[in-house]
Each structure stands twice: as C-alpha cells, then as structure tokens.
C-alpha cells in the first residue's frame, strides 16, 4: 500500500491506479498458485519449515523470471502493439479452461503430478532419493550424491511459476505497458503469496467460488484488451480495478456463504 501510494504521488493518479490494478490482478491470480502449491507439497510430503524454505527459493526464482517476462513482453508490445491481441487470446482461453476444469475436480491431483511432463523429465534427469534428508537438497547414498524429494519439489514449484506467468504477465501488460509499474506490482504480489499461503492454506481449498472468480477476472481482462485495442469502448483503469475487486469480492462472499450454510446443515458433516 505504501509503495503504491509512492507511485501515485510521484507519477500521478493514473499510474497509481495502474499499479494497484496490476497488484490486485496478480495477487488474485496467485490464488491458483496456492491451490497447486498445496497439492505439490502434499504429494512430496513437504511440511513445516521445509515448505517455508521451498517458498523462499521459489520467490527468489520468480523475482528473476518475472523480470525477464515483463521486460521482454513490454519491449515486444512497444514494437508490435498488435501482439496485445495474442495476450488477450491467452487470457480468454485461460478463463475458459479455468471454468471448464471445474467439471474435472474429481480427478486425482497426485496422479496428474506423476503424469506431468515436468515431473517425468526431472525424474529422468536426476537420480532421486526415496527419502527426505532434513532440509538438504542433496544427500549421499552408497557414496553417490543424489537429489532429495525436496529438490524435486522446488523444481516443480519453479516450473509451475513459469506456467502461471503465461497468464499473469499478459494480464498485467494488458493493464499497463510501463515495465516499472508492471514489474514492481508483480513482485510485491509474489512476495505476498508466501504469507497468504500460510494464512489461508486450509481455507483456500474450501473457498469453492474463488477459483471461478479468478477465471472471470482473466476473461474480463482479455475482453478489456480487445475493446481497448479496437477503441470500441474506453475502459478506465479505475473502472477495471473496480470490476476486478467486485468479481473477487463476489467469489469470496459466495464461498463464505456456502461455508456458513454447510456449517448450519447437520447433514453436511
């Protein structure tokens, strides 16, 4: 909040609104990250301080990767502005996928990790110890250095962040093409992801309407990019921020209401 206020005071109200809009967008998209991280940690049986260790390294990697994605994306859009429509297509497709995937919630998430290309590639590249060795990423077995499941978990988290960036970076660049605003807001949101994970680890899995709300946010931003590009309707940044906050607030309200209703229903337990 203080940094966003600093941007507003030094660069103007419009820049400040863009910063806060990008921050809220990235922070809300981080909800999807949390769901995936929970599944990854549970699969690899990473608990307690080890989760904090993996998240710290993951955030450090995200700081570097997001800079590359944001900087390169901004440079491309400055030279080829029509590429913003490609970003819009990514967001609309991600929105559709997010809403459609709700029908497949009964699938085993741990199976999806084992079947993923990232998991298979990493297990082919590294010899993996069957057991954790404290907070070490490598351990010795019969005189050989091998990777521990903790390292494999970290690498899966890092690759997951790259996948998430394909949604979040286009969403942010669809709101502003200023690299400083896009990157700084992105990083502050990523930093917030760590605290949000530990605060809401259990609650996030029960907020059933939050994921579809995030998908609607992606769809809205994608459509906003299209109408702005073709000058069909001018959507002000503050208006976009209000819509995004309204969608997220609705998702949270419906989730909380469902939890309250289920707690009052004796047959739900």
From TrEMBL:
The chain crosses the membrane at residues 25-44, 56-74, 80-96, 145-165, 180-200, 207-227, 233-254. It is found in: Membrane. It holds the Pfam family TerC. Keywords: Membrane, Transmembrane, Transmembrane helix. Its main location: membrane. One of its GO terms (cellular component) is membrane. It is a multi-pass membrane protein. NCBIfam families: R_switched_Alx. This is TERC protein. It comes from Symbiodinium natans.
